[in-house]
Amino acid sequence: MIYREYGQTGKKVSLLGFGGMRFKNVDNHDECVRMMVAAAEGGVNYFDTAPGYFETRSEIVFGKGFAELRRRNLPFFSATKTFQSSESGIRGEIEAQLKRLNISTIDFYHIWCITSLNNWESRKKDGILKTFRKLKEEGLIKHICISSHLIKNEIKELLMEGVFEGVLFGYSAYNFKTRQEAFDAIREKKLGAVVMNPLGGGVIPQHPELFDFLRQGGESTVAAALHFLWDHAEITNTLVGFDTIEHLEEALQAMESYKSRTQKELEEVKAKASASFEGICTGCAYCDNCPQGIPIPQYMDAYNQKILDKKSRDPIGERLQWHWNLDRAGAGKCSSCGQCEEACTQHINIIKRLKEIAG
């Protein structure tokens, strides 16, 4: 296992992390705990969950898993989140979380799901930062972190606040172009950087042919996608949501086979991405200047799900709701001026897609 420094916290975390959002049988506690133990025995020491995963049942599983890890003297760091903003709401939630997780302090506590800068300003007005600082002073949490789906300069602006010790954000071979500015802030502020959805929420293993450009030799697509991320020196941890122990073992094997690329080789891989994603928005955000105020990159990202996600019943709607906190109706503001299509380097028919999304 490879370990990297988590920002300036003095903690070293495993490059491969365990996410608690995708257990196949979350109510089979023995099975889930066995997965956590197997991960820890393989060197994983970063375990992330949230109160919204399986309606708190993931945190309950983690609590039983943490107890077993302590019994076996296997080291671990805990990470979870809160969507609450007021002091009373946060304190009520963390009290319940500590009981569910069976711990006295949370190592990495995240302000959860910042979807816009307006959302962030609203939560700051509720006093969220003051409350988080109090929780740290009281020893209920050790490190103040942020979880965000923002892209481009917005995520950079968020991270430049100067209060966070680490960030959790989506990053993969599928959407890496939308997050480059995050790394500027991560380097400047010396933050810990944990990436979620490293396999594009399942998109990458579903479409191995699209991601063949990642592969070196005979490695699997999953291993190649993880290796691509591990080549980024700024990334502290890649958070994989394991549903079965077989998928955990696959990720551990990917770690064993990992051989790093040079920075030049990594940039060459990134350059191949555009040629591989014909018809798929790669998130360059040149279209992000809509006169009607439509967040076009987010809507195009959601449309990608229709193309790529063959399992979801409503891939566009689910992506808009759970990833971007948007609804379909917003796409209906399009006036068909064509400004976005003129800026699109991939020549995507954005207007048509917006109308389809809006219905």
What does this structure look like?
The chain is of the alpha/beta class and about 350 residues long. It has two domains: about 5-265, Alpha-Beta Barrel (TIM Barrel), CATH 3.20.20; about 295-359, no CATH class. Helix content is about 45%, strand content about 15%. The protein contains 15 helices and ten strands. It has helices at about 30-40, 55-70, 85-100, 115-125, 130-135, 150-160, 180-190, 205, 220-230, 245-255, 265-275, 295-310, 315-325, 340-345, 350-359; strands spanning about 5, 10-15, 15-20, 45-50, 75-80, 105-115, 140-150, 165-170, 190-195, 235-240. The strands form two sheets. The protein has an eight-stranded parallel β-barrel with strand order 3-4-5-6-7-8-9-10, surrounded by five helices. A two-stranded antiparallel sheet has the order 1-2. Strand 7, helix 6 and strand 8 (about 165-170) form a beta-alpha-beta unit. Helix 9 (about 220-230) crosses helix 10. The protein is globular and about 60 Å long. The model has no long low-confidence stretch (mean pLDDT about 90).
Q: What would a concise description of this structure say?
A:
By secondary structure, this protein is an alpha/beta fold.
Order of strands across the main sheet: 3-4-5-6-7-8-9-10
Largest sheet: 8 strands, parallel, barrel
Low-confidence stretches: none
Helix/strand-derived category reads alpha/beta
How many domains comprise the coordinates? 2
CATH class of the largest domain: Alpha Beta
**Helix/strand order, N-terminal first:** EEEHEHEHEHHEHEHEHHEHHHHHH
- The coarse silhouette is globular
Distance between the termini: 48 Å
CATH topology of the largest domain: TIM Barrel
Percent of residues in beta strands: 5-15%
* Total count of strands: 10
Q: What does the radius of gyration come to?
A: 20 Å
CATH architectural designation of the largest domain: Alpha-Beta Barrel
Number of helices: 15
The overall pLDDT, averaged over residues, is: 91
Q: Find the CATH superfamily of the largest domain.
A: NADP-dependent oxidoreductase domain
Helix content: 40-55%
